[in-house]
User: Fold M20/M25/M40 family metallo-hydrolase from Candidatus Aphodenecus pullistercoris.
Amino acid sequence: MRPEEKLSRMIQCETVSQAGVDNGHKFRAFHEVLASLFPNVFSRCEVTKFDEALLIRWPGKGHEKEPIVLMSHQDVVEASGKWSHEPFSGDIADGRVWGRGTVDTKGSLMCIFEAVDQLIAEGYVPERDVYISSSDGEEVNGEGAAKAAAFLKEKGIRPILVLDEGGMIKAEPIKGAKGRFAMMGCLEKGTCNFRIVARGKGGHASAPGRQTPLVRLGEFMADIEKDDPFKARMNPTTVEMFRRLGPTIKGPLGFVLSHAAFFSPLLNKVLPSVNRLATAMIKTTCAFTQAHGSEGLNVLPEMAYVTANCRVIHHQDADETERLLRERAAKYDLEVEVINKNPACPVVDHNSPVFHKVEDAIRQSFPSVIPCPYAMTGGTDAKHFSSICDAVIRFAPLEIDEQQYSSIHAIDENISIDTLQGGIDFYKKIIKSF
Assistant:
């Protein structure tokens, strides 16, 4: 069976994760499909489960050596809207495999399993243990990956490398950059959620008075958006990203980015006004995501709130973010409640020998692609492994275009068949490199 056919079969399994909903039977059915598609993996490796999260160990020659961990989650988000191909059909058409999870992240999961399955069939034995970690609830902040990391930590196991989803291979990752780039996530921001609460007397909406709870919340949000308290600061990961992208960009911008370390003061001032994504790589961000008022159309709330989702970066961490929000909230007689606070992950050294080995595997698998470190603005399961591994790299070895990137969590998600073999080759090279 060809790789695209195996991926198609995996897509047909509706492994949707939903908070508070038990879909365990669907994941168990998926595991049966995996066992049929990759028989060598499931007959020769040790399988441990945490609920329906998988941790699979392929024993190597040297058990005393630090293992590598290859990650990609099983679960997918729901698939609503009108699709060109049914979201769980796994249709193979127009040189692509269609369906929910092709990019996020069953495509890379298939490549991992296929690489290991092929190597076992060839009689290859790795120099060190190889783990496959695949959680069942990444999309809903489930505990599968955390339990897998805790399991390894309890056994005193510190991986030499953890590879999870994150960046992929893209053309023109920023406007004007000419070429194809493997975006390797070296920095993962932390996530904090706060509830901003306003209290008032309530009453009938026919005589509202001034500075009611919702008005104060609105003023607070407008103030944060107009003059947020978070400062942009170039970090080594983003400097290196620009240093590698800069030479491919024509004109003065290319020169400035190529010398981002020197021009950091200028970039700190300019980027926040011209590029939303680049801004998120160099500062803490705050987005207001939920709101609640009274239960009646004509009732003033005694209590109203909004939630703030903050993605925190190292130079203004979770505690400072909370302090800054409290200071600003006090101006509007608002309270700040902490829902959760997760700090930014340790930064991976892009000059380390382990990082260079991953770069080499990329160059060998995708000869014209330029490896490029970058700061991730989203979250991954990999964060749970940061306490036991110094080289937690967020990169899935699949090439996607703008439509495919935009299809993540949206309609018409798909992956090109041509990129699958490169992904398989990449994981085989990673295993053999260590």
User: Anything to note?
Assistant: The radius of gyration is 23 Å. Residues 233-282 form one domain. The mean pLDDT is 96. DSSP finds 14 helices and 17 strands in the chain.
